[in-house]
Structure formats: structure tokens, C-alpha cells
Design a protein that fits this description.
mainly beta, 45 residues, two-stranded antiparallel ribbon, single chain
């Protein structure tokens, strides 16, 4: 996942377990990828 380390994604891995829901928010204004999405997990929003 692009940006995982930049946005400190590693810090929430220990809080996640298989089957947890992620929220996907489209980022159509992303200049690198018009189909990019942001991923959110529980209280990381």
C-alpha cells in the first residue's frame, strides 16, 4: 500500500485482525493516480 510507512501505518497493525473492516475513501484529485483510495481503520479516521 503506497504511503503505508509515510503515514505510520505500521503503528496500527497490532490493533488489526483478520476480518476487520476497512473504510475506503476515493481520492480522485490524486495527481499520481485518479483511482487512488485512502484506507481507514476504526479510530484512525
Amino acid at each position: 500500500v503506497a504511503g503505508f510507512y509515510f503515514y505510520k501505518g505500521q503503528s496500527i497493525l497490532d490493533k488489526m485482525k483478520r476480518g476487520d473492516d476497512l473504510i475506503m475513501k476515493p481520492k480522485p484529485d490524486n495527481i499520481e493516480d485518479e483511482y487512488a483510495v485512502e484506507l481507514y481503520f476504526k479510530d484512525s479516521m
